[in-house]
Specification:
single chain; alpha/beta; Aspartate Aminotransferase, domain 2; Aspartate Aminotransferase, domain 1; 2 domains; 7-stranded mixed sheet; 3-stranded antiparallel sheet; binds pyridoxal-5'-phosphate
Amino acid sequence: MQEILKNKLSIESSRPGRRGIRFAAADKHAADYLPATLLRKTAPNLPELAEFDTVRHFTKLSQQNYSLDAEFYPLGSCTMKYNPKAYDVLSVLPGFASAHPFAPESAVQGTLELAYNLQELLKKITGLAAFTLQPAAGAHGELTGILTARAYHDANGGQNRTEVIVPDTAHGTNPATANMAGYHVVNIKSAPNGCVDKAALKAALSEKTAVVMLTVPNTVGLFEPDIKEIADMVHAVGALLYMDGANFNALIGLAKPADFGVDIMHLNLHKTFAAPHGGGGPGSGPVGAAKHVAPYLPHPIVSHKDGQYTLVDNRPESHNRMKAFYGNMAVVIRGYCYLRQFDAQTLKTIAENAILNANYVRVCLKGKFNAFFDRTCMHECVLTPPDPHTTGVHTSDIAKRLLDYGFYAPTIYFPLIVPEALMVEPTETENKDMLDAFVSAMEQIYNEIQSEPQTVKDAPHNQPVKRIDEVSAARNPNLRWQ
Ligand SMILES: *Cc1c(COP(=O)(O)O)cnc(C)c1O
């Protein structure tokens, strides 16, 4: 049965002479429109299929894909969760989607009003003084934030500040961003509890420090309990505290970063705020700043005066613009819908459920797949496989075996400070039944590791594609149909 199914899928279905739709007049007309030199002498070598076969082909392909609409997607740090279809419809309303980027402000008042209102809502949930919606991704938000910090220092006698301090639990984009902005990156190791080592931070801080970049929660899914004290240490040397808030669903409604001393931060709308992170975009990484830094955010910013919404370019201290026009509107619209759908109490529940679900998985799997830092985590837990050196079964094998059980693999081998990491982010949207099913699958894999490790090492067994050579697939992609 399995074999027949597999063969059916892999059979090459092109047959000479099979046709989908035939436009009788097409051949005749091509010569009317194109110069002879551009006309093909021979037909292109394309698959030949009936319309019906084509529909079936693409439908089958789509069914081989994992998707959030069909499966659980515990991809840590990428937050694949509630992405309401209704927001998709709203984000392509003609008034938004058909607006020309050069349309005069008077013609796009609705779009500007929505952007302005989202800026205001983001200010409310973070406590910060101003937001720009320009950045097109989280990493782009970081670059925007670090350039904002530089503009601040340049204007405040801090031209000699050349260093950005980044703990080893930061997202990988943090050191990359600081480097790209021209700063010297100073890495500090974490304390044994997975959080910032305050002694190491103190030793690294100096009058050369421009910014300390903290990922909160950090990449091992932990909140920095001493964040306020850390902020005070940073400010004492005249530096700014940058918070990478890409995973804000762990904090939304629970804590405002401005309250614990954050000067600049970015959010990923395409994680927390109802747009998926996977799939290559588009994204949106709004950047917020505290009052003393706000004037240095890039221009334009949407402002509201006398009933009119305008894009304010006249901001003399600002560090120029980061993107053509004003952000990825379709993602901005989804983020706005999200914040309008839920009141403050519900937003708090969202964070609480994200935290509860991650801890539920962590505790259920204790003794089998232990958390690297065995503490209460935030929205994700970072697990490790049982003794991979003795069993010979590694994280990549477990990830492949999960596919056989119908689960998308968690993020693996990240964060780098955790050997053989399995980073599970259930998100607040999954119910207990789904979490229990995932835990059972992990428990069965644990049993297989003990009794039949080869089964796990040879996984996946029931997927259309087995293990691929990921390096060759990336470097020499074979995208031809034949
Ligand atoms: C996803 C993520 C980023 C980067 O966001 P992109 O939109 O992929 O550039 C940065 N920091 C953290 C903590 C993240 O989880």
